[in-house]
Amino acid sequence: MTSTRRAAVLGGNRIPFARQFGAYAEASNQDMLTAALEGLVARHGLAGERLGEVVAGAVIKHSRDFNLTREAVLGSSLAPTTPAFDVTQACGTGLEAAILVANKIALGQVDSGIAGGVDSASDAPVVVPEKLRRKLLRLSRARSSAEKAKAVAAFRPTDVGVSVPANTEPRTGLSMGEHMAVTAARWGVTREDQDALALASHHNLAAAYDRGFFDDLLTPYLGLTRDQNLRPDTSMDKLGSLKPVFGTGEGATMTAGNSTPLTDGASAVLLGSEEWAAEHGLTPLAWFVDGETAAVDYVSGDEGLLMAPAYAVPRMLARNGLSLQDFDFYEIHEAFASTVLSTLAAWQDEEFCRERLGLDAPLGAIDRSRLNVTGSSLAAGHPFAATGGRIVATLATLLHEKGPGSRGLVSICAAGGQGVVAILEAA
Amino acid sequence: MAHQDGYTAFVSSGLGRRLASSLGLPQPVPLRRQVPGRPLVDGPVLVGGHGDTPALTALRDGLTAAGATLLDELPGSGRLGGVVVDLSAADDPADLESLRATLGPALKRLGRCARVVVVGRDPALATSPAQRAARRALEGITRSVGKELRAGATANLVLVTDGSEGAALGTVEFLLSARSAYVDAQVVRVGAGEASRPGGDRPLDGKVALVTGAARGIGAEIARTLARDGATVVCVDVPSAGAALAAVANQVGGTALQVDVTAPDAGRRILGHATTRHGGLDVVVHNAGITRDKLLANTDADRWAGVLDVNLGAVLRMNEAFLAKGGLRNGGHVVLVSSIAGIAGNRGQSSYAASKAGVIGLVDAYAGDPGLRRRGITVNAVAPGFIETEMTARIPFATRELGRRLNSLSQGGLPVDVAETIAYLACDAQSAVTGNVVRVCGQSLLGA
Questions:
Q1: B234, B251, B255, B276: which to substitute to probe chain A, counting the most A Cβ within 10 Å?
Q2: CA-CA distance, A114 to A112, in Å (whole number)?
Q3: B411 within 8 A of B8, measured Cβ to Cβ
Q4: Chain centroid offset of residue B355 CA
Q5: Is residue B333 predicted with pLDDT exceeding 70?
Q6: E strand or H helix at B246, and its extent?
Q7: Does the beta carbon of A35 lie under 8 angstroms from any beta carbon of chain B?
Q8: Tens digits of per-residue pLDDT, B36-80?
Q9: For residue B198, what is the DSSP state?
Q10: Domains of chain B
Q11: How large is the average pLDDT for residues A317-326?
């Protein structure tokens, strides 16, 4: 391999995001991912087409979903000869999938591909307690009647129960919100700033719907035509009336209004080479310029759980010879309003930029009017692995509207102290 | 089609047939519909007419090539698949005797779902009162025969143009075929043009067709039928219907475009999509439509405006883009969807009837447009009668049964019957067919 070529974002599709136990309570990950693919196939006329590869994943998976993406492809109108694989990098899954597909296209290994993600907080796998699971396995291994009788005799009424996956970090036992509350306090993020960011997210998303921005990005599913979490008429008063759910005392600033709710949904993004796009009559919306990942040591308390993007972005900027201000759009995933605000505060902080990032000067502030201009996860919701696809397709469309030369930054924090970031440029 | 017409099934059974016959009830039969590979007509076609039958002379080879067995004499036995009577040389009411002599004895020999096609000329172009009277008489005969026919048979009239008789081949072929199952007692005018080429199984191969309102019902069936005939279909519907729209687009291997046809930029967006994705646009089917039924006395301005804007205003606005230079390709086809309500009127449907009658006005205007004629663009409409859809399935039982039976075929049509007629009007072979409103109503008594 001697040279690389540009990978283009050609379009996207997602289903509206539903609140947990809402419109998609009965839908499986495979159902939703297939629906997202079907809408993408229809929008781009890909029925019967063999694509280079489909890459997607889910953060919360049933064991039966070991080949989730391939199964979704087989259930879609794509040619059954389209290969697929699953990938997982927590909430960075969707964006990481896009990086993988873009890289394969850049290297000439594939000419086209779909990156996607799906998650259901409703149709979650329920597992039996560890003690019971081991006893059940022992019973299934037993051969002789005596062994079986012994295995059965080992069961106790107290073994019975179920454990549902929780949104907690295995190494700290803290929930993501509890981790974030620590970081928010560290950066002195106020309740009012968080509520204002949440308000802007709802208003921007509603305005984008009203102007038809999502007509080419979304396909209704199970009767839902807009994100179920969207509250177009929310206000600072309404958000201000909510009780804090994370943090303690003075530092308890995080509410259900300025934190993302558990959500169900799926998204998919079509990428391809320039040649492939031309052959299929598709107009490149944006080039996938670069991607970067980072991880932080949150276990020891050295850094906040969701602060990895603060490290990934400057590394990617340096590699591309760009400053933080060289962007027309910033898509910073709103895991919590305080995640966005802590990240922005860190980039403006001289000490952090010097000590942590090794920079001579702070990255500086961004023009807030360019941030999440069509809303983000606080309003739309956040089905973990589906967020990357939502953001990439949204940003590519924004850049296409803005015109050549425009540039956008994506930043997504992920569980396990990780972050995935990317740069897109209008085609 | 999921919508069951239980009555038709019942009277097609032994007991049901005897019962209906003794009680004098209508006896609808399941109609013959298009199945790839099946012959054009089920049985030989008797041909005849008046004088030197100039139209028949021009059409004979084409009909034979299309698979019809033509007979000049009524055979001693056996059922006929159809009759084609050429009265294009009739100059005087006395000449109509030729029609009676040919068609009369043949009527009792028609097979199930047989076809009667009368060929004449446009009365408006007649040169004498006697000639005009004779030409106009054909319409009366055809409509009466339509009402006399039984067992799914239909009768239609084709008006040919002097010197262009061969251009009617596609129309006569359509009216003989199973594709015209629910087209009955219609008059189709064929203008001056080249002898139409036979289309084969995929007459729309390589063509790009737009269908609005394609997510469900008749629109979805139009998309499927145009795709079956070879077209690449751009399926358009409102964003809220996107899930069903995607399913249709993927089924037909086309593309889905979620756009509200009433949006000011709808025409530009649709044209842009067709041009960048598929290289142009050859066929436009304006199918999207809504009803907001209310007695006029109870209709408010919003309901009124909504119906007129979707069914008529949007068509006008989008056509500004489609019919401008750089829009529809030369030789393209526009098919609008009117309704029997636009012809006969319907209680509680004044707004809908206004829009659908307005559509007929649009056909007249576009068909008379010299610019469009120069570019070879044809504009026609279909006007469905009672069609079995989710919408008509919701009509109360008694009203529904009345709508179903009040036509010569004693049954409702299927969405595919509308779609087949549109597909016929969307073919290049029909370059001489413009300005027509073809009802797909089984010769409904409404507005007849």
A1: B255
A2: 7
A3: yes
A4: 19
A5: yes
A6: helix B242-252
A7: yes
A8: 888 999 999 999 999 999 999 999 999 999 999 999 999 989 999
A9: P
A10: 1-30 (no CATH), 32-189 (3.40.50.720), 208-440 (3.40.50.720)
A11: 98
Write the pLDDT tens digit of every residue in A166-197: 677 888 888 889 999 999 999 999 999 999 99
Q: Is B242 on the interface with A (CB under 8 A)?
A: yes
Give dist(CA A224, CA A210) in Å, integer: 16
Indicate if A353 belongs to the active site: no
The CA–CA distances, whole Å, from A316 to A320, A357, B39 equal: 6, 12, 68
- Residue B88 near residue B125 (C-beta atoms within 8 A): no
Question: Chain A partners of B249 at a C-beta cutoff of 8 Å?
Answer: 42, 45, 47
A219/B246 touch (CB, cutoff 8 Å), yes or no: yes
Of B249, B260, B276, the CB nearest to A283: B276
On chain B, the residues whose CB falls within 8 A of the CB of A47 are: 249-254
Looking at the complex, report in whole angstroms how far the Cα of residue A332 sits from the nearest Cα belonging to chain B: 27
Listed in sequence order, the residues at least 6 apart from B260 whose beta carbon sits closer than 8 Å to its beta carbon are A212, B238, B239, B266
Q: Are B249 and A45 inside 8 Å of each other by CB?
A: yes
Look at A42 and B247 and tell me if their CB atoms are within 8 Å.
yes
Q: Which of B7, B352, B366, B424 is catalytic?
A: B352
Of B253, B259, B277, the CB nearest to A281: B277
Nearest CA in chain B to A45: B255
Q: Does A427 touch chain B (CB under 8 A)?
A: no
**Closest in A48, A212, A215 to B253, CB measured:** A48
The encoded tokens of residue A330 equal 């910033």
**Domain range annotation of chain A:** 176-212+288-426
| Most confident by average pLDDT, A57-66, A280-289, B16-25 | A280-289
Strands A418-426 and A286-295 come out as antiparallel
Taking alpha carbons only, the member of B283, B213, B296, B201 closest to residue B248 is: B213
A235 near B CB under 8 A? no
**DSSP 8-class letter at A90:** T
DSSP string covering B2-56: ----HHHHHHTSHHHHHHHHHHT-----PPP---TTS-SSSS-EEEEESTT-HHH
Fold classified for A176-212+288-426: Peroxisomal Thiolase; Chain A, domain 1 (3.40.47)
Predicted TM-score (pTM) of the model is 0.90
